[in-house]
Amino acid sequence: MQNNIYFDHASTTQVHDEVLKTYKKLLDEHFANSEALYSLGSQLANLQEQSRQFIAKAFNVKKEEVIFTSGASEANNIAIKGLCFAHQNRKHLITTYIEHSSVFNAFKQLEMMFGFQVDYLHLKDGVLDFEELKRCLRKDTLLVSVMYVNNELGTLQDIKQIKDYIKKHSNAYIHVDCVQALGKLPIDLRDIDLATFSAHKINGLKGSGLLVKKQHVKLLPLISGGQQEYGIHGGTSNSLVNILFAKTLRIALQQQAFNQIHIQHLSNYLLQQLKKLPVKINRSVSSVDFIVSITTMIKSEIMINALNQKGIYVSGRSTCSSKDVRPSRVLLDFGLTEEEALKTIRISFGKSNTIEEIDIFVTCLREIMDKYATD
User: Fold this and answer.
1) pLDDT band at residue 319 using 50, 70 and 90 as cut-offs
2) Among 88, 148, 162, 190, which has the highest number of CB atoms less than 10 A from its own CB?
3) 4 CB contacts (<8 Å, ≥6 apart)?
4) Could you confirm whether 320 is annotated as catalytic?
5) How far lies 113's CA from each of 73, 108, 117, 118, 223, in Å?
6) Measured between alpha carbons, how far is 227 from 342 in angstroms, rounded to an integer?
7) How many helices and strands in the chain, by DSSP H and E?
C-alpha cells in the first residue's frame, strides 16, 4: 500500500476541520463588503472586529495594533519597507543571513535601490552572533529584524536578550518574524515594535496573515488605497479569512501544550534513529523540535523525488526558494559546504504525525541511500 506521510509542516499545514466548516458557513451567509454602511456590511465588519479583538487579547496588544494582511510575506514587506520609507533620515538597518526570503529580499531591495545600508549578521554555534550584533548596532540604526524560529534549521533565537540590548543601547525599532513560532512557543511582544504571523502554518487558510504594529510606530503604506486596516493595508478586506484567523489562533493555542509534548517525542525518536544512519544532523545549540535538517550522501532533489515515489513528503529548503538551484544561504551560514547544502533535506512535524511514520521514513531513507550508493 502506498504511504501518505506528510513531513513538511514548516511549509504549510492542512486546514483544521473546524476552520474549514466555519469558512463554508461564512461563504454561504456573508458576501457583502465589510466597509458598506448597510446592515449586511456592518454585520460582517462587526465579526471582523471581534476577531481583531480576540487576536489582540491573545497577544496582549491593543486592538488598533492588529493589521490583517494577505500573508506573512506581505506583512513582512509592509513592516520593513513601510518603516524605512517613513523614516528616510535614518539609513542603517540590521538583519541576518538566515531570514525568510520575504525579509531578506526586502532588505536587499532597500540596500540596492533605495540607498539604505544593511549589516547582515552571521550565525555562531547555530544562533545569531550576539557580539556581532553589538558591534553593528549604531545610534542611528533604524531597524533590527530577526526571525524567532528559522524555517530551514529550526534555529531558535533569544529574542528577549536581543530586544533588551537593542532597547537599552539604541533607538532602533525591532521587527520579529514569528511565523514558525506561532502555535509552538510562547510569544511575548513586549518591546517588540513589529511582528508578523501566518495562518496557514497553524492549520489555517492560505492568504491570511497578520502584522502587529505598535501604535508608536509610523509606517508609510505600500499600497495607496482606502481606509481599511487603519490606512495601512488598503483594498477591500478579505473579511471571511480575517475572521477565521481568530478561530485558527484559538485552536492552535488551545492545542499548543499537547502538540509540543507530542512533537518533542517524535523529534527525539527520529534523532535517535538517524544516529544509526550515515547522515549529518544539522542542529544548533538552541532549536525547536518540529524541524529536523539532515545532510545525506545524495542530492536533495534526488532524495526528495525518491521519497515522493514512496509516498513520503519532505522538502530541501524553504519552499519559497524551492526552485532556486543555488545552495541555501541559510545552510551555508550555518557552516555547511556548498556540496553539503545541496544534499540537505528538511523534515518538519505536525500534530498528525506518528512514530510509525518515522519508522517507515527511516527505513525508506536507508533503502534509498543503499540504492544510490551502489548505483
Assistant:
1) low
2) 148
3) 311
4) yes
5) 19, 8, 11, 12, 18
6) 46
7) 11, 14
* Candidates 84, 136, 320, 364; catalytic one: 320
Q: Is 170 helix (H, G, I), strand (E, B) or coil?
A: coil
Q: At what angle do helices 72-86 and 101-113 cross, to 10 degrees?
A: 30
Backbone phi, psi, residue 295, to 5°: -110, 130
Contact (CB, 8 A) for 287 and 156: yes
- How far is 264 from 185, CA to CA, in rounded Å? 12
What is the C-alpha to C-alpha distance for residues 130 and 34, in angstroms, rounded to an integer?
Answer: 46
Residue with cell 501566518: 198
Instruction: Give residue 320's pLDDT band: very low, low, confident or very high (50, 70, 90).
Output: low
Write the burial class of residue 135 (CB in 10 Å: 0-12 exposed, 13-18 middle, 19+ buried): exposed
Bridge partners for 347 per DSSP? 292
Cell numbers representing residue 189 in the block: 511582544
Q: pTM to 2 decimals?
A: 0.94
Query: What are the chain's domains?
Result: 5-14+256-374 (3.90.1150.10), 17-251 (3.40.640.10)
Residue type at position 67: I
pLDDT digits (tens, 9 = 90+) for 92-126: 999 999 999 999 999 999 999 999 999 999 998 88
